[in-house]
Amino acid sequence: MVAKVSDLSQLRKKIDEIDLAIIKLLSERMQVCREVAEVKAGSATAVIQPQRVREVLTVRRQWAIDSNVDPDFTEQLFRILLAETHRIEIAEERDEPAPSKTADALRSALDTVACRIDHVVVAVANLDAAMDFLTSLGFKTTRTQDSAIVTADAGGVTVVLVGPGDPGVDAHLAAHGSGVQHIAIEVLNAGFVQQALAEAKVPLLTNVIVDADGHEQVFTVLDPSTGVQLGFISRTGHRVPISGQNVRALFHALAK
User: What is the crossing angle of helices 244-255 and 167-176, to 10°?
Assistant: First the structure.
């Protein structure tokens, strides 16, 4: 049965109830983590247990698959949860009082829809050397269908390396040298961000661009005061990596 508009308030109420249950479960989990921290402290056990982290992520991914939930999305959630767990274990040992928290923060348009840094694009004069560096740090590097564009992934972090050989990239390297070309911020809706930025008179390089994989993106011009260009990305398709053509198209737009 298809839900009607008149059912919207009831469906939202159900979501609120589920979210409240999630918060209560999070509170319960954090309390257990505090107890784990006490046991570790009493037995001189290291706070970070890499093998346990790998086990948790692998098992949760399988649980997600079994429950028809995107495992990549689930892994992101649990990485955030594990980071918070680690913070709590360390913070509980500190003497200073914790800062107070309130729920009445005033939110700008961007603050309403911004989620996280999705990826960072780095233009490099020597692609092989850049790959070697990131590999030495523990990133997994993968060449895209465009051999001069490489993705480097570690956990929930993605760096996109773009090597020379394309007029747009070469022009960028000549003007700025190797370094961050743009930072892509994941947002709930790229169209909403475009409208908000236009109303704020922020110079935009593009309107919303939608690629074949369902990535919606809008880009600002490079800001001369910071040397940073921002992209805002939302997904309407399946969760797939950024493609080489997608990144290449941006440099072509910059060269115009």
Answer: 70
Nearest to 86 by CA among 123, 115, 58, 46: 46
- Domains of the chain, with CATH numbers? 11-91 (1.20.59.10), 109-255 (3.10.180.10)
Instruction: Tell me the per-residue pLDDT of 205-246, one tens digit each, with 9 for 90 and over.
Output: 999 988 888 889 999 998 888 888 999 999 888 887 777 777
2 burial class (0-12, 13-18, 19+ CB within 10 angstroms)?
Answer: exposed
What's the pTM?
Answer: 0.84
